[in-house]
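Cross-check.
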Amino acid sequence: MNPLWIGGAGILGALTAGWLGWMESKEKFDVRKFGSTMIRGLFAGVGIAIGWNYMEPLNPWAVNLFVAFGIGAGIDVLGNRLAGTIAAR
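Predicted model, tokenized:
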């Protein structure tokens, strides 16, 4: 798969988690706080895109475990943020 698509998905995931966190907080939108989320998401996306090319030659078993770990952590964060957002409204 194209590393740009993978990196873009990483960035979008970080931005989604940040957006849900803001909705949960009931605070006014603060560009500075969301800006730091955007920067962390950009670093994550670039890191994933670069790292993906180096992971392909590795054992597919190890790559699958790494991806499953990231997905599990991401789903936990998003689920927690979504539940907090629903409870806050």
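The chain has one domain: 3-88. The chain has a mean pLDDT of 80. Passed to J.P. for a second look.
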